[in-house]
Amino acid sequence: MTASSATGAAPVSSGKYLTFALGREEYGLPILKVREIIKVMDITHVPQVAAHVLGVINLRGKVIPVIDLRRKFGFDAQAPTDRTCIIVAEVALPSSTLMMGVVVDSVSEVVHVSAAEIEEPPDFGGPRTSDYLLGLAKVKGGVKILLDLDRVLGSDGTLALGPV
Amino acid sequence: MSKTTRRKADKAPPVIVAEELATFAADPELASMFVADGLEHLGTIEQTILRLEKAPGDLSLVNDLFRPFHTVKGNAGVLGIQSIETFAHKLETLLDLARSGSHAMGQAEIDVVLSAVDVLTMMVKELPQRAAGQPHTDQTAACQRILATVDALIAGEAPAPAVPIPVVAQPDADTATATWIDEDSTIKVSTRKLDALVDMVGELAIAHAMLGDNPALQRPGDDRLSRQMAQIRRITGDIQRDAMSMRMVPMRRTFQKLTRLIRDLSKKWEKPANVIVVGEDTELDRKLIEQLTDPLMHMVRNTIDHGIEPREARLAAGKSEVAQIELRAFHRGGGVVVEIADDGAGLDTERIFARAVAQGMVADGTPMEAADVHQLIFRPGFSTADRVTELSGRGVGMDVVRRNIQMLRGRIDIHTTRGHGTTFSLRLPLTLAIVDGLVLGVGADRFVIPTPAVQESLRPTPQQVHTTGGRPTMVQVRDRLIPLLHLGHAFGIPSAREEIGQGTVVIAEDNGRRVALVVDELLGKREVVIRSLGEMFRGVRGIAGGAILGDGRIGLILDTGGLLALASSMSPQGAA
To answer: How many angstroms separate the CA of residue A155 from the nearest CA in chain B?
Structure first.
């Protein structure tokens, strides 16, 4: 009924996307989900969580979780450079929304993607990857992978591992 | 087809929702105001009727009863909620007759009004669920039963009395009236806003502390700067105190609930009891009171079922057949104490011990102090109830009560004298928002352990450390062997020191069990604002939340219960 759930329900939509780099790939996040971009700061490690969960940061008095997309997507680990950033975005969990930080190699630009430029994600033969892809956008001669950050977290929205 | 129509069809039958609750559902703000107001009025009604029960014939009390009923009815009428309106109207008719003096408020009338208050409270509470089409309790049958009773009473017929009415003793008239104080003028603020304010003020205090630590500000000789810093510190402290006080609410409402519960149970069980309430104006953090109510209700049930003897036994012991139950709340040493005291039989040390032996909790013949024996009632699974009664003995025991109290960072003590009664004493912090903690360093990481959980800290000598299979697993402190938990290992912190001899051991206690945490260093005591890590981290064991420390970094707050579970899953022996 509300505006936010309506935008969340639309699987692929034209609009503005914030693009960023991971390795040699370019990804895009719907700009409406992005709150801010910050420099990498001190991250407090939290035990018993999946490897791609780096921990929590203090964002002006708010404690928010930070995940490493490189690790999540199976890239080689890389030491932070001066271009490494944390994108703070809003993520919808089954019962609430929260702010989350996503570490990326570098932030590129904001691009407008029209519906005609978006292609359905190809079927890679397994449910794992295509689950959190909104689609592929062909803009400016390159392909940007549009991410559904809500799904990147996994279906139950918890980052903790089960009992060790 | 649009999405919205499909969603509507998924919901429960919307027929009732549409008709009676259309206005209610259409205006969420009005709706939440109606629910809040309604519950407040119903609380007033309940409180007034309990006073009326002690002073029947006091027409001004009947008047006080009539007004809130009328308001609830009126508000329901405005919103078009007929089920509540017609129900309240019938009760109002009875009260109107009583108010004009043409109908006496007897015990039957009081009982029916009380049960009507219960039904109305449920109806009002569940309105949001009903409006959202979610499942709710159907009160139609209960309403009709009460309406029939009211009709009979108005017609002058004596309804079948539901419960034989024991004499409930009249309390001191002074205590009943002296507690009536004028309400200050107040405004309503959503608790979420208030919580956010308290959190932000906590951060302000911490930010101020960080500023104070800044070496640039610590140059000697600048008097004006240090004066200004002191000024800011004073103001920050004042704001913090005031913000905290906004979230404080008196114990009154909780004590009212308990009084009502005691009244109902003592009638049902024919154990007449007189309730004395002391210190109901004592204020506690709202969140704390919310979580305190259930444990207190459970303790009151226990008191009436186990604590108070049957009437014959009381008379035989030369006591008044009317038991005294005292509910007390007062400040002590920076915290609050809540007590439930009875003049019943007191705890039966021998029986508890025998029961614990029978249930395999202790070995027969173990030498134990009486106080330690009394602590056994808090063990999971302990029950002295030979029968399962409606009141207690249904498995949810005192262990749950103690667990809840400990989650509030409080503790529970028992003082009992055989034949003279028992006092359960709860010591609680004033607020849940701030915890007094010990900051621990492990490698580069910082942890905070709440001070109440810490028993002691020590640097163990090699003789105190016992190994199994070459790995240190236990530390001996005086006569006790305590399992070791190396925080660095348990949490996978690579830079943690390996050798226990170099580190410090902090003994933490939870529910009578202890664990020795191996850390690199103790970094001092400080107050921190507790922040949840959010539901994404809810599966993490041993961590209760996060706190922003003086340097802006986050320290994780340790949860001793979770650490104990972690310790026993890591070592084959389990925790002692």
So the answer is: 11
